[in-house]
Amino acid sequence: MKRVLLIYNPNAGNGVIKSHLDEVIGKFAEAGIMVLPYRLGGSMDLDRLFSELKIDEFDKIIAAGGDGTVNLVAGELVRRDIRMPLAIFPTGTANDLASSLGIPQTIEGMIKTALKDTYIKADVGKAGSRYFINVLAIGMLVDVSQKTDPMIKNTLGLGAYYLRSLAEIPFARASRIKITCKECELDEKMSAVLVMNGRTAGGFKDVAPDSDVGDGLFNVLVVRKLILPTMLPALLKVLTGHHTKDKWFEYFRTDRLRIESAEGEVINTDVDGEKGDPLPFDVEVLPGRLLIIT
Fold this sequence. Notes:
alpha+beta; Rossmann fold; Tumour Suppressor Smad4; eleven-stranded antiparallel beta sheet; four-stranded parallel beta sheet; 15 strands; elongated
């Protein structure tokens, strides 16, 4: 009998996966596949789980939760050089990666997709010591992601991110950041930097409208220094997808870059919704490193 490891976040999306766990296990059993569920948040962390399980006895892994959950599971696969197909159950709030890949967000659709044996080879980004599948964020949008209350996210969904974005506008500040790559060199005050592998970030659709997770390139969006009167118009341009050629933004593609902050300045970074390494660091593409079932 085939075996699948299901790693799930019980709190993601108001706990939707918990109420459908028996249905998921039953549907896989009907297909002749045994599911071993593992609940995140217990006494055993992922590092210990992967160390103690015989991973090669499984045929695929399912990550059920938001982008942070997918990041945690994918990071273990990359670190351990495990080349096993990964299915995504997008049961979080934004589900940015799943949106970029067109993965269904209904339980029925998730199960149908996860039962497939077809997958794409997706690039993985490495920023310092951390990996990301969808986006590395620096600056204002990091505050939006990390300061949004989980209870509000579960209640309002994507609306929580939009409200948080508006709330952060009066307090947003620009930081001096240096970006170096073969395509360009920038050294100026920036409100945010997004290194995109997918298309969507923080629920904002088409942040990188021409991004392809398997093309071996990042799509980098630099938000230049914004003052209070320009912040809302700039935010609206991103919401409507009319920002890539606007004067407030710099948009380019590359497979490798270095990002540095001004000496002594601490700038928050975020990888797929999880806290990232402090600057400075190098960012590089690991082409086709992850097998994602779609």
